[in-house]
Amino acid sequence: MILAVMVALLVTMVLALLRAFAGPGLYNRILAINMFGTKTVLFIAVAGFLFGRPEFLDIGILYALVNFVATVAVLRLSHYQELFGGTGGGERT
Asked: How much is the pLDDT for 90?
């Protein structure tokens, strides 16, 4: 049963990556990458349960924190690029 959950998570991770590459817009792609990160955390937790290694949960929590911070950083960067006309950081000429 746990193996079926791992396979299902892998399938959803592949679908999230496909959506990230074929997404219609920037925000849809960022959302797909965030979803991939969340599925990765779930996969790490299930793998830890399957292998009897509870320390995998610590790794999953750390990865979730990194995923959250990276998503917020990319969203802020894309927001500032939209504000300043895509110059990449607010240079004024």
From this structure: 47
Amino acid letter for position 11: V
User: Could you tell me the CA-to-CA distances from 14 to 20, 35, 54, 55 in Å, in that order?
Assistant: 10, 11, 26, 26
Q: Contact at 8 Å (CB) between 39 and 16? A: yes
**What is the reported pLDDT for 86?**
63
pTM of the model: 0.80
Q: What pLDDT does 80 receive?
A: 82
Q: Is 43 exposed, middle or buried (0-12, 13-18, 19+ CB in 10 A)?
A: buried
